Amino acid sequence: MYQVVPGGAGGTITDVIPKQKHSKDTRPLVWAGVIGLVLLIAAVTAWCYYIASLRKAELLKTQLLDLNKDGYIIRNQGGSIVFRMDFRSGTLDLDSCSKEGELLSCGRTTDRNLNFFIETVRPKDTVQCYRVRWEELVPDIPVEHAMTYTFAHWYGGAVSAIQHWPISISGQQPPKPFVTGDIYSNRNEFGGILESYWLSSNATAIKINNSVPFHLGWNDTEKTMSFQARYNDSPFKSNPGEAPCAELSYRVCVGLDVTSIHKYMVRRYFNKPNKVPAKVMFRHPIWSTWALHKTDIDQEKVLTYAANIRKYKFNCSHLQLDDRYTSRYGEFEFDQTKFPNASSMFQRLKSDGFLVSLWIHPFVNYDSENFHSCVERGLFVREPTGRLPALVRWWNGIGGILDFTNPEARDWFSSQLRSLRSRYGVSSFKFDAGETNYLPWKFSTRTPIRDPSFFTRRYTEMAIPYNDRAELRSGYQSQNISCFFRPIDRDSVWGYELGLKSLIPTVLTISILGYQFILPDMIGGNAYLNRTDGNSVLPDRELYIRWLELSAFMPSMQFSIPPWAYDNEVVEIARKYTALHESIVAPRVLELAGEVLDTGDPIIRPLWWIATGDETAYKIDSQFLIGDDLMVAPVLEPGKQERDIYLPAGHWRSYKGERFDIKEPLHLTDYPVDLDEIAYFVWV
User: Fold this and answer.
1) What pLDDT is stored for residue 207 in this prediction?
2) Where are the beta strands (DSSP E) in 565-606?
3) What is the rounded CA–CA span in Å between residue 678 and residue 410?
4) On the CB side of 18, how many CA atoms lie within 13 Å of its CA?
5) Is 26 a residue whose pLDDT tops 90?
6) Residue whose C-alpha is closest to residue 545's, from 519, 566, 520
7) CA atoms within 13 A on the CB side of 648
């Protein structure tokens, strides 16, 4: 029988179509085919994603740096991780990243636009550098990157009240302004000599750009240092007319060893001195009235002090007349009561062979005769509106602080110094203070400054006409001022908090920051009340002797508490070490000082300078080098007449005449060092 079936648009189909039934046995095959097809599509999709991820991973690599959404790592040539930085101000949207040549850039975080890039720069075969910039496009958003410091030992940054070498981090500190401060009055501040530069034992260095509104914090639980840029709740200011959009920019460089990478960074990023101070400053000690007399100084005491220097047969580069020779702070005339005939005093000192320098500062107290005229002429730093002078409190009262961005203030201050020089024959000046903590939190200056520490720089420039013998205690980008820089006052104690043990770590830190003409403060410390070890108004006798011995191996020596305040034995020890300084130390230091003008290399060097792969050398804070060939190991513990000494590999001769020809570093345990001795070794 035939069956009629509906056809297409043209009519009917009359073919015979037999009816069929699907067998149940074929259904699994159909499903298997469907599943196989799905799996094939999934595999192809996964492969495509894998290829894309490989391309993205390749995109986010540049030389030895790997970038991810949360930060980046840098490896050395051997493949080991030497540097890690985490982003704390946002997560990068990696889909917004692109790479063109050696420039890797991104345009977004997960929630906002930004400008971010890392550029690879290879300035020389042995150095690999990375320029990093994170720029916010919305005002008042801080930028913060956190550097992990566990990969190595770190050095640099700033002097501090408790100074260690290498840097020792404890506690948690939210990022705070990285500006110069007086660490004697506030021991939690950053010190008066500071640069935004750090160096590590694994041959990695980081330099924050000077334009960054830079804040530094740390966390010893996370083992991180936080580098932050911000304008809100900060003394930093954006450029006039510009929105306060924060930018954190810096350069990370990796080299072959810690010494060579530091040499590269110094030559590339630091100012260098353009002259060497007066040679006599290196050869003969400075004698200051401060620790001996404090502010209770007068004409008779100055003349007696000078007479005793000659009586006890000591040399003198110059005599330093410290605070307080004027009747009020901010005046430049001698107090007639304390100095009834200053001109006669200077003439007598000159005839006895003494040059004299004077203590000065940037403050004019409100009770000074100069205060009103300085206000009328607009010579002071002003409050934020610029309408009124800002009154500031310092350790000697309340007054105005001169605005050294103002040419009129600079000229006025300079004229006062020139007048002192012409009237009395003053040889130079001790420039005290200059740190930003003596500025108001918010202030204005004649020439706007974005970075408060630029005020420090401007103040240090006032020393340039006197830099043969001048002394500064603060510095920021001031290496080319070419005078002696002094750490803040030391207490007459043994420990690391502004004591004898802090001296070597502080000098090494200042050296790494590019300041090579270093005056390590007064022998024995400042003998301040309640901050002096011992049972008398004088520093402890043993402490004084050990301090004296160490100072003899510094670029310059400075007395105030005189050796004759103790006994004849101390006087003889002082004569011995001032002679040793003049005959052995000063000639070598002066040779190195000449090299500083070209290289910027330290005069006082850490042991790792000649032992770059030596883990022990990275941690030694009680020995140092003068150049590469004179190693010094002072006794820094009370009651000790021996010490452990670490000798790097080489050929050494001790001060006792012993010869050490060693291919490996050598530990000398309990090496005997009498009270009148300091251990030192000369490269043969």
Assistant:
1) 98
2) 604-605
3) 45
4) 2
5) no
6) 566
7) 26
Question: 81: buried, middle or exposed (CB in 10 Å: 19+, 13-18, 0-12)?
Answer: middle
Phi/psi at 358 (5° precision): -120, 145
Q: What size, in residues, is the chain?
A: 684
Sign of the C-alpha dihedral computed for residues 91, 95, 96 and 98 taken in this order: positive
pLDDT over 70, % of the chain: 92
SS3 287: strand
pLDDT tens for each residue of 283-312: 999 999 999 999 999 999 999 999 999 999
For residues 276 and 296, what is the distance between their CA atoms, to the nearest angstrom? 34
Would you state the structure tokens that stand for residue 631, as one six-digit string? 């190693």
CA 477 to CA 466: how far, in whole Å? 18
Of all residues in the chain, the percent with pLDDT exceeding 90 is: 88
The closest alpha carbon to 199, from 530, 663, 560, 618, belongs to: 618
Q: Which residue, chain included where needed, has tokens 């101000």? A: 89
Token couple for 670: 């309990």
On average, the pLDDT of the chain sits at 93
CB 217 within 8 A of CB 225: yes
Give residue-wise pLDDT tens across range 569-587.
Answer: 999 999 999 999 999 999 9
Residues 6+ apart with CB under 8 A from 482: 273, 274, 275, 276, 277, 464, 467, 517
How many other C-beta atoms are found inside a 10 Å radius of the C-beta of residue 279?
A: 15
* One-letter-per-residue 3-state SS of 509-523: HHHHCCCCCECCCCC
Q: Which long-range contacts (CB under 8 A, 24 or more apart) does 268-272 make?
A: 268/123, 269/197, 269/207, 270/195, 270/197, 270/479, 270/513, 270/514, 270/600, 271/477, 271/478, 271/479, 271/480, 271/514, 272/479, 272/480, 272/514, 272/596, 272/597, 272/598, 272/599, 272/600
Task: Please state whether the peptide bond connecting residue 166 to the residue before it is cis, i.e. omega within 30 degrees of 0.
Answer: yes
Q: For residue 554, what pLDDT band results from cuts at 50, 70 and 90?
A: very high
CB 564 within 8 A of CB 571: yes
Q: 530: pLDDT confidence band, cut at 50, 70 and 90?
A: confident
Pairing of strands 471-472, 484-485: parallel
Contact call for residues 449 and 429 (beta carbons, < 8 A): no
CA separation for the pair 506, 496 (Å, rounded) = 10
* 269 vs 146: CA distance, rounded Å: 22
Residues 592/628, Cβ–Cβ less than 8 Å: no
| Residue for token pair 């004697």 | 184
- Asked whether the beta carbons of 376 and 389 are under 8 A apart, the reply is no
Contact criterion met (CB below 8 Å) for 83 and 204: yes
Dist CA 187 CA 190 (whole Å): 8
pLDDT band of residue 47 (cuts 50, 70, 90) is low
CA–CA distance from 103 to each of 60, 63, 84, 110 (Å)?
10, 11, 19, 21
- Tell me the one-letter amino acid at 341: N
- Identify which of 254, 270, 269 has the alpha carbon closest to the alpha carbon of residue 126: 254
